[in-house]
Amino acid sequence: MIFKEEQKTVTHKTEAEGEEQNQVSTASYVEGLTLAQDENGAGYCSLNGAIYNDYEGIVYYSGSWFYVKNGYVDWNYTGIAQNGANGEWYYVKYGRVDWSYTGLCSYNGNWYHIENGYLDWNLTTLSYYNDSWYYVKNGMVDWTYTGFFWFRDATYYVINGQVDFSVDTLIQDSDSTWYYVKNGAIASDFSGLVLYDNIFYYVCNGVLDWNANTLSFYNGSWWYVKNGQVDYTYTGFFYYEGTTYYIQNGVIDFNYCALIYENNEYKYVHNGSFAQWYTGLICYENVFYYINNGYRDDTSTTLARYNGDLWYVKEGQVDYSYSGFFQFEGNNYYLVNGHVDFDFNDLIHLGDNQWLYVRNGMAAYDYTGLVLHCGSWYYVVNGYLDWSANTITEYGGIFYYVKNGIVDSNSETLVALNNIFYYVKSGVVNWTYNGLFYYEGIWYYINYGYVDFNFTGIVVHSGGMYYVVNGMIDFNSEPTLVKYNGTWYYTANGVLDWNYTGYVTHEGYTYYVTNGVYYP
After folding, report:
1. Cα–Cα distance between 4 and 86 in angstroms, integer?
2. What's the CATH code, domain 454-520?
3. How far apart are CA 91 and CA 113, in angstroms?
4. Tens digit of pLDDT for each residue in 366-375?
5. What's the pLDDT tens digit per position in 74-127?
C-alpha cells in the first residue's frame, strides 16, 4: 500500500516551555481513500470508488479531516481519533477534527491533553478543564502524581493529578525542602510564620528557612524565631532592624516597661524595646532611678526630668533630702526636698548678707528690679539683693523709692536721680502732688512729682501765697510785683504781704500797692 503525505501546520503552546511553537503534524491518508455521499446524502469512506467498511480513523477530504467509523462519517462523535497511517491522534468534535480546541478529552477511561486539536505525547503541563487544573504527563492526565510542578511563573502543588487550590500548609519536596503552599502554589512572595502540626515555622520567600534567627510578625504580635521556628523558651534581648527588643517567652510585649539586668548592668525597657534614646527618671518598683541613654546610672549626681518636673539625683536615685541650688544645662536651679518648684519666686538667703532672687525655680541673674519678700520690697541687681542701692525704680507702673536696698514705705522726701529731684511719699513717687515741700531747710516747688527748677512765680500753700524763684522760695527776695492769675501782687522776703500799702519798684518803674495788690 502506498502512502501519500498531506501536511497541515498546527500551532499549539507547550506550557512546560512557556512559549508558542509551530509543529507540523503529518496526517497521512491512503492513496485513493476519500469521502463520498450515498443516495441518502450520508458521507462514507470510499476506496477507489467502493465503500471501505474496515477503516476507523480520520480521512482527509476537501481541506478538512473527518472521523470515519464502519465506513461512514460519524457526525455524533466527539473525542480523539487516530490517523491510521501515522499513528497520530487528533481531537474530533461532531465528526470533524477541531484544530481550535485546547484542553482535556476523555477516551477509554483516560484523560488526554489536546493542544490546538493535536495530542502531543511528549507534552508535560497543567491543563485547565471544568474550573480545575490537571497534571498532564506525556499527553495524559497522571492521576498517580503528587508533587510540585512549575507552570506559568508559579510552582503549583498537585495532589493525585489535580491542583488543589484549597491547600494552605507546609509541604516537603522530594529533596527534603519544605515549601509554603497557599492557594495551590508555592507562596514565593510570602515571608513570615506558618502554623504546621502545632508549631510555628518561619518561611522566607515561600521556603522554610531553618537558619532563620529573626523576629516575625503574626496575628498582631512579634515572635522570636530561632533556627526556623518560634522559640517560646527564649527571654532576653534581640536586635532587629535598628532596634533592640526585649523578648519574653518568645514574644514581644509592647506594653512592658522595666529594668532588666544583663551583663552586670541594668537596661531600661520601654514598651518592649531597649530605650537607648532615653535619659531621665523612671519609677520602677516604687523607686525613682536615673537612666542615662537607656542604662541605669548609679554614679551620676545631676538633675533629671520626669513628667515635666526636675528632680535632684544623687548616685542614680532621687534625693528627697536635698534643698539648695544646682547648676544644670546652663541654669542655676533652686530645689526644695529634691524637687524644682517652677512656681517658686522669692529671695533665698545664701549666708551673711547675701541674698539671691529665684524666679520660676531658677536664679534670675538677668533680673534687676524689685522683689517682694516677707511683705517688703527689696531691690535686686543682676539677681542679687543690693543693700547699697539708693534709687528710684519702676515696678508695675509705680515708681518706688529704694533706700539701702529696700523700699522705704514710711519716707516722705526728695530723691535725686539723673539730676532730677523726685517727690516721694510713703515710698513711691507722688505724681499727683503740686505744691511746696520742705526738705533740708529749703522749700521746693513740686510740679506733679518732681522739683520744677524752671518755675518762678506765686505758689499757694496752706492758705498762704509764696514767691518761688527757680523752684525754691527765696526768703531773701527784694520787694517786687508778681503777676498771678491776672493780678499783680506785692511780695517781699518770699511771701505775699497783704498788709503792705505803698510804693514798690518793679523792672525800673514805680507802682502804688494797696493791701498787697497793685491795681493798674
Report:
1. 11
2. 2.10.270
3. 10
4. 999 999 999 9
5. 899 999 998 877 789 999 999 999 999 999 999 999 999 999 999 999 999 999
Q: Check if 350-431 and 454-520 are the same fold.
A: yes
Q: Name the pairing type of β-strands 265-270 and 258-262.
A: antiparallel
Alpha carbon 59 to chain centroid, angstroms: 77
The angle at the Cα of 475, spanning 472 to 478, to the nearest 5 degrees, equals 110
Q: How many CB atoms lie within 10 A of CB 498?
A: 13
Cβ atoms 45, 52 nearer than 8 A: yes
Q: Of 138, 88, 87, 77, which Cα lies nearest the Cα of 117?
A: 88
Beta strands in 285-397 (DSSP E): 287-292, 295-296, 301-306, 309-314, 317-318, 324-328, 331-336, 339-340, 345-351, 354-359, 362-363, 369-373, 376-381, 384-385, 390-395
Domain spans, the chain: 350-431, 454-520
Start-to-end CA distance of the chain, whole Å, equals 173
Say which DSSP state 205 is in. T
- Distance of alpha carbon 274 from alpha carbon 268, whole angstroms: 6
Global pTM value = 0.64
Cell 526630668 -> residue: 305
- Give the tens place of pLDDT for each residue, 272-301: 999 999 999 999 999 999 999 999 999 999
Give the class (CATH, top level) of 350-431: mainly beta
Burial of 370 (0-12, 13-18, 19+ CB in 10 A): buried
Question: Measured between alpha carbons, how far is 436 from 459 in angstroms, rounded to an integer?
Answer: 8
Query: How far apart, in whole angstroms, are the C-alpha atoms of residue 514 and residue 520?
Result: 11
Distance CA 391, CA 378 (A): 12
Query: What's the CA gap between 204 and 42, in Å, rounded?
Result: 65
pLDDT at residue number 14:
36
